[in-house]
Specification:
Layout (H helix, E strand, L loop, with lengths): L5 E4 L2 E4 L3 H5 L26 H14 L6 E4 L5 H11 E2 L4 E5 L12 H13 L5 E6 L2 E4 L3 E3 L8 E3 L6 E4 L2 E4 L11 E2 L17
Parallel strand pairs: 3-5, 5-6
Antiparallel strand pairs: 1-2, 4-12, 6-7, 7-10, 8-9, 10-11
Helix pairs in contact: 2-3
């Protein structure tokens, strides 16, 4: 879902493209990997809830042994929240779990969607990649460190208080931080306590 899967309608952008539609815009992906698509939702990311995070994690768990990596298409407004949640719902993953999206729909002539998607496939097929990461604007950012800091720029996400895990340039992945791949089996969690409120303290509160 999200902008990457949207088309223009009378009321503005709305997620309408299916997974197969999106893949038709990046035929170059066939030279990188064999892609199979699962359509979980088709929604604006502002409507994401904790139950959707759990469903994504459960789907990865169900398919974990069948694939070498996972690419999740997501709207940019709440992608950082989902990436962070998945980082805790899926721990010690030796396989890469990548979230990406776009500032403009993939069916437009000028868009960052195609490059972000192809970069995500490159990162997800690299043997040194693992864990939950956001790949956007040529950067691979740890899932717990990604934050959307720009609303219009293609360079929308930054890594907060932590270096980028890698950059993707000219069809190659350059790792800055690899660490050791998880040698133990991944741990999946199946619930999120949604009864938590973040209260920001401001003067006069």
């Amino acid at each position: 879902g999200g902008t990457i899967a949207s088309r223009r309608t009378e009321t503005g952008l709305a997620p309408q493209l299916l997974s197969e539609d999106i893949l038709e815009y990046v035929p170059q992906a066939a030279a990188i990997c064999c892609v199979e698509a699962i359509q979980l939702f088709n929604m604006d990311s502002t409507n994401m809830e904790p139950k959707h995070w759990v469903k994504i994690a459960e789907t990865v768990e169900e398919q974990y042994d069948n694939y070498d990596g996972f690419v999740i298409l997501h709207g940019t407004d709440t992608m950082a929240y989902t990436a962070s949640a998945l980082s805790y719902l899926i721990q010690d993953s030796r396989k890469p779990i990548v979230l990406t999206g776009a500032q403009k729909p993939i069916d437009q002539d000028i868009t960052d969607a195609k490059s972000n998607l192809l970069d995500s496939f490159l990162y997800a097929t690299d043997t040194r990649s693992h864990g939950v990461n956001v790949v956007f604007g040529g950067q691979a950012i740890a899932g717990t460190r990604a934050s959307k800091v720009r609303t219009k720029s293609y360079n929308a996400f930054s890594s907060i208080d932590f270096p980028n895990k890698a950059v993707i340039r000219d069809g190659k992945v350059f790792h800055y931080i690899t660490g050791e791949e998880a040698e133990k089996e991944p741990v999946f969690y199946h619930r999120v306590d949604s009864k938590v409120c973040v209260l920001k303290l401001i003067p006069g509160l």
